[in-house]
Amino acid sequence: MTTDPHAVTAAILVIGDEILSGRTKDKNIGSIADYLTAVGIDLREVRIVPDEAPMIVEAVNALRARYTYLFTTGGIGPTHDDITADCVAEAFGVGIDVDPRARAMLLERIKPEDLNAARLRMARIPDGADLIPNPISKAPGFRIGNVFVMAGVPAIMQAMLDAIGPTLQTGARVISETIEVGNIPEGAYASDLASIAGAHPGVSIGSYPSMTQGGFLNRIVVRGKDAAAVAAARAEIAALVARLRA
What we know:
The protein is α/β, with parallel strands linked by helices and 246 residues long. It is 39% helix and 26% strand. The chain is built from nine helices and eleven strands. It has helices at 17-21, 28-38, 53-66, 84-92, 100-107, 117-120, 154-164, 186-199, 227-245; strands spanning 9-15, 42-49, 69-73, 96-98, 124-126, 130-132, 141-144, 147-150, 175-182, 204-212, 215-224. A six-stranded mixed β-sheet has the order 2-1-3-8-7-6, with helices on both faces. It has a three-stranded antiparallel β-sheet with strand order 9-11-10. The protein has a two-stranded antiparallel ribbon with strand order 4-5. Strand 10 and strand 11 form a beta hairpin. Helix 8 (186-199) runs antiparallel to helix 9 (227-245). It is elongated and about 75 Å long.
């Protein structure tokens, strides 16, 4: 599918050693992808990086320059390895300190005498950033430029995403059509499908096999933002499948 120069695009940056080690199974990528697709924002890239400052800074700068939006998850808690806020501040070349607004949010849940140095880390916000509310544990995320910094805990991330959703620029929504191929093997239609894809550069065409108790079942999915283009490609694929079944 050709890239629309006017499309609203995004990337996700997942931060955390625990994701790369497999100890924690990421649930946020799929949730954010679903959300963005529903509002017409094209998710173009996902990166996962460890809790290492140079890698985080490099990724933030690369992705925020390339896409309309960058969404990060993870690394904004109270422990020593929660360094995302510091890295984002470094990427933008701004200072960072305890933000009175964020501190006040923490005090909605934490007693003043319990607001120790570790917990105050969650109130350290880069200069000039806007806060993203967290109705669950109160520790906020933040937005600076086109970067949204959110928690790694899925429920909290989702609450933050819901909060920022109305502020996002959105685009045309993707239309998706599925053609059930059944047990016709991919090798039987791969060449013809490639020809159809070449004739319809404005749509994305993919073949997706799944294993069932009865063997492989294949589906072909056509995706695009132009309804007429999607319909035309779908019709050709449906005709191809019908010929193979005959």
